[in-house]
Structure formats: C-alpha cells, structure tokens
C-alpha cells in the first residue's frame, strides 16, 4: 500500500525526492503517513481535497483484497 501511495504522490509533486511514506500496520488496519515538501502540499491535497480523496479511494480499493482498513494521512 505504501508503494502505491508513493508512486501516486511522486507523480504529482515538483520535488519527488522529498516524498516520504511510512506504514504503521496494526492487526485490523494500516495507517499510511504521506509527507511531502511544504510547496507541494497543495498539489497533493488538491482543490477542496479532491486529489487527497482520490488517493484515499484508490488505496481503500486496493486494501479490500487484504480485508484491512486503510487510513491515509497527509502530514507536513
């Protein structure tokens, strides 16, 4: 899941080397923390959060195969 988020995020931002993805895995859920440069934060979130919502939707669809709940957090 983390690699999927990283691929999506690096294709969106101007500074792909600053993209960091961290996975915290529990028994029932996975938390994915996405960290990008401050300048690229708007590109990852999008207008009214549309891009962030799309990223979460894609990851949630991929997670249904593993029967796990996924939370994507975009941090600075």
Describe the structure concisely.
The chain has 76 residues and is an alpha+beta fold.
Describe the structure in your own words.
The protein is α+β, with helices and mostly antiparallel strands and 76 residues long. The chain is built from 3 helices and 3 strands; from the N terminus they run H-E-E-H-H-E. The protein has helices at residues 2-12, 41-45, 50-63; strands at 20-25, 29-35, 69-75. It has a 3-stranded mixed β-sheet with strand order 1-2-3. It is globular. The two termini are 20 Å apart. The mean pLDDT is 93.
What topology does this entry show?
Elements: H1 2-12, E1 20-25, E2 29-35, H2 41-45, H3 50-63, E3 69-75
Parallel strand pairs: 2-3
Antiparallel strand pairs: 1-2
Function: A probable RNA chaperone. Forms a complex with KhpB which binds to cellular RNA and controls its expression. Plays a role in peptidoglycan (PG) homeostasis and cell length regulation.
Family: Belongs to the KhpA RNA-binding protein family.
Subcellular location: Cytoplasm
């Amino acid at each position: 899941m983390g690699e999927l988020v990283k691929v999506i995020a690096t294709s969106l931002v101007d500074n792909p080397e600053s993209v960091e993805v961290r996975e915290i895995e529990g028994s029932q859920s996975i938390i994915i923390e996405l960290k990008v440069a401050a300048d690229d934060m708007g590109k990852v979130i999008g207008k009214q959060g549309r891009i962030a919502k799309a990223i979460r939707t894609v990851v949630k669809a991929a997670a249904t195969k593993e029967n796990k709940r996924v939370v994507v957090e975009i941090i600075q």
